[in-house]
Amino acid sequence: MLQKKLISILTCSVLTLTLVSAPVKNTFAVTTIPNEKIVSEEFAKKQSEIQPKYGENEKITVVSTEYQTVTLTPSGQPAGGNNFKSGGSLFLNYDSGGSQSISVGLGWEPFSFSVSTGQMSTNAYTSGSTVNFPAGNNYYIVKLNRRMKFERHKVDVYQYNTYQYTYYTTVSSIYSNSHYLQQVY
User: Fold this and answer.
1) How many domains does the chain have?
2) Residue 2 domain-assigned?
3) φ, ψ for residue 143, nearest 5 deg
4) CA geometry: angle at 114 spanning 108 and 119, to 5°?
């Protein structure tokens, strides 16, 4: 009986070691589906608009990620810039202001998106930053750097767990914000 327990413990240990040493699959690896049918993103969107597809679900895989910084001029600033002879501050709201369309070249395709330019104000905001201006006779405008994150998604569409088709799409989001003063004169 003792010998049987010892063999059982050794067997479990060997199995555990085997599992620990197994290679780990990369989570960004793209799996290919037998007889994969790749369609355009426009086709996929039209399919979902035609009629609701009961039992339809999507498996999304991030296949690539890229970061780029875009520089914007927040609205609410005089064209000639701001001047505080004794120093001063304004507030930059990241979430308001106008919208600007931007096109960037990504490793997989050109991509266009819209992003808020931000808004300068004398009122403090919860979503933003205080911008301090130096004392003196110089005029400054505030520039907003938005670090954008772009993800390339592979989307496999299934209906009742039966593969239908695959399409690719790009998703953008704001990764971080920073600002600086640009001297006008």
Assistant:
1) 1
2) no
3) -115, 140
4) 140
